[in-house]
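In response to reviewer comment 3 from the previous cycle, which asked for concrete evidence that the modeling workflow produces usable outputs, we include below a single protein chain processed end to end. The sequence was submitted unchanged, and the resulting structure tokens are shown without manual editing.
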Amino acid sequence: MSEYTIVGIEDVKKVLAMLLPYLRMKKLQAQLALKVISQMPGSGRKMTKETLLRLSKDVDRFLELNYSKRRTNTSVKLKAFLDSHT
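The workflow returned the following structure tokens.
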């Protein structure tokens, strides 16, 4: 077993695109990650509340694909937080 850490959205996108044809077990996760990355604004300053909520709903789909009892932050919690700070 080994672990490989990639830092930066563009690098993650490149590695996922290269690995995608060879993936079997995590292909859906890689496709979803590439979809989320492609919808992200080019700069954090362009991120709107609506865009962030839409992307967080896509990220929530990982719950269906992966087992993680530690994940507690969801799009519902994000919306409640943003609503309480607006």
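The chain has a mean pLDDT of 89. We consider this sufficient to address the reviewer's concern, and the full set will be provided in the supplementary archive.
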